Amino acid sequence: MKVLVTERIAKEGIEILLAEGIEVDEKIGLSHDEICDIIGDYDALIVRSATKVNEQMIKCGKNLKVIARAGVGIDNVDVEAATKQGIIVVNAPEGNIMAAAELTIGLIFSIFRNIPQAYMACKHGDFRRNRFKGVELYEKTAGIIGFGKIGALVSERLKACGMRVIAYDPYVSEEKFKKFGVERVDFETLLRESDLITIHTPKTPETYNLISEKEFKKMKKGVRIVNCARGGVINEKDLYNAIKEGIVAAAALDVLEKEPNFEVEKQDYYNPLLELDNVVITPHLGASTQEAQINVAVSVAKEVAAVLKGGIAKNAVNLPAFEKEKLDEILPYLELAEAMGKIFIQAERAFANKIEIIYSGQIDPKMTTWLTRALLKGYLEFSVQDTVNYVNSQVLAQEQGIEVIESKTHEGGKFKNMITARFTTDEKVLELAGTVYNNEGRIIDFFGYKVDFKPEKYMLLIQNIDKPGMIGKIGTIVGEYGINIATMQVSRNKKGEKAVMVCEIDGALPDEAVEKLKNVDGILRVTMARL
Fold first, then answer.
1. Which of the following is catalytic: 200, 224, 284, 442?
2. How confident is the model at residue 259 (pLDDT cuts 50, 70, 90)?
3. Which of 1, 286, 325, 338 falls between 20 and 30 A from 500, CA-CA?
């Protein structure tokens, strides 16, 4: 067994592989083409962030069984191409949790006490301390957006500073808030009452530009903002304006929407925020501690060794380790189950305290555990900051306070196989059902409406009053934005009452267009869903 390592990882990770009798070749600094030339000789590939593992490289890796990224994200790996080739993709989702939380606290102190600015002044011989009068954290209100593992760690440390801590996360159970002694609030309340806002949410279509001009205008004058999560959650142009207008007293950013080039000799990066003395920007240091780098190296080394020795990777981001024949059989069901979770959470944007999954017909009982995990993965990907995969999704669901019930019946009705997912929220119970035929997943019940559509990358999910002219109005607005409707499913249960439309479209509809649709007389709800 041979592993190719193309970027530097901590020696502790290499030692684990060698101890397992696995041959390791560390070849640092290879070009894309050079890697493609040799990758066919290896069973595993370990990278960090510089190596772009694209479809071409994956196809060259004819013997690859696992690709590992020694880090939290997986942006530089074509997961879909790896999945099609039956290659497991793993990462290290928990390796830098403490590092990210501690950096957040460091940046909070920096912008409350002007530490970086005072340091630079002293470096240049200016010791006038009256220029750097700060503000105490004690008895101030800290608002946390995103209450996952990192958000919870940050809350503990801010409470120790004597702060009142409030948090917004619609996808976390009440029990978790009580466990950490944090007050649960809605988004508007958090914006209005916080002296400090710190962000710990994933970057999704729903959270992109989550804080922009409209949100800044609702904040306290003098608020301070920290983002160690993902670039793009804050609109940087609007942040600049809010600082110039005096709404935001200071900001600290470890992530930017457009990341700079980290090689000094190739640097041509410009961002207006760098001109502001009350903005602290760090070069994506969230995982940059000795401990975090050892953690991620050890984590991926253990994952690679497990896969190469026939075991299951705990942090597989795409698939469990199935034989090729079983993979071909289960893949359409995995994709269907995951899509069902994604459709519910995007359509309803509500916390489900109970999810019941019923398998009907001839679905192999040995596969249902993975199908349940796939459905939970789809649901959680849009609601937690943690990296969600097929292995950890059940644990994360439990941590969120979700009761998961799985059952099996041989009664499949008119369908050979069927998956039914029943989601219970505080207000209602909703069902989705799907089946697989011709090796393709189809949704056949959409919240009580009979349909038959294949989950696609971009979909408009619409609820409306059943009356003439609705289809034409929707088509006109979508067409105004140059987007084509590929397919449309319309369903009603009773004439003149509520109906649903599911439209597969060729691209993502902009927020402006979605708002136009929402304002059409007779339309009750519109969701721009992305799978």
1. 284
2. confident
3. 338
